[in-house]
Predict the structure.
Amino acid sequence: MIKRLRFLSRRRFWKLLLVTLFSTGVLYIAFIFFIFLYFHYEIKHDPISRIPKIVIYGDTRTYHDTHRKIVEMIRSESPSVVFHTGDLMTHGWGLPDWFAFHRIEKELIKETDYYATLGNHEHNSLLYYLYFDFPGNEEYYSVDRYGIHFTVLNSTGDLSKDSEQYKWFVHDLRDHKDAAFKFVIFHHPLYSRMKVEDEMNIGESILPIMKKFKVHAVFNAHLHSYERSYVDGIHHIITAGGGAPLRGPRRENDYSKVYVRNYHYTKMYFEGDELVYKAIDIDGKEIDSLRFYPHKDPHYNLVKHKRD
Ligand SMILES: [Fe+2]
């Protein structure tokens, strides 16, 4: 017994512990890397040849059954392009969260041209970048489809006027100023009846340039309901009804046009050269609709809403 204790001296014990921890850590990292490499190639896809239909939805964390139902509804729409407005899962570093997300979303991701936005729950995790394959630096990027310019920003990152992301955003909008339609997607809303608005204080920098370059609409998430506000010719749409716990209104928002506390997704499709926009709740009921006009149309930024 004494000999054994001598064999496992204090020094040897710490050495053994460090080697064990190091080996386990390396094995764990390798395991994660290969799992995500598998996910990455399983979902990799080419651009989809379907009738143009865009779906935008978000905040799919927490309630998996609701998330699954919303994804089934979206798949039944046969969209060609899909954007997720962020908060894909409860914790972006959590492996069980990624497995659950993958189980529910993989068919939708495989069969569409699929893009996501960083929410606060992603924690800018390395796993997000291992799982997806987006253009540019993947944190913020833009995509052009059917004459529509989509810009995806990271509202959890720096968007002050001195930041790289802000400078990139100005260039991106300037380079695509002639696009027929312009939509900007980021996680934190600038206007809302729920909890807070402009939580990240980014409106001061990005609102003037979105107004200057005549963005049609902004899509957000984070506050878990449906809301559309209309400010200075831009629609601000919160689509955060993909499975996260619903939130009720807590404050005034003078710009709010529609507010619905229910799970939902939104879709857009062409009628001629105009874009029809609809929000659909989890029961299949239309909760909002309007029409976007291409830039060449002098009425492109007018509210055309049946309740206005
Ligand atoms: Fe969020």
Notes: Residues 87, 119-121, 187, 222 surround fe (ii) ion (CB under 6 Å).
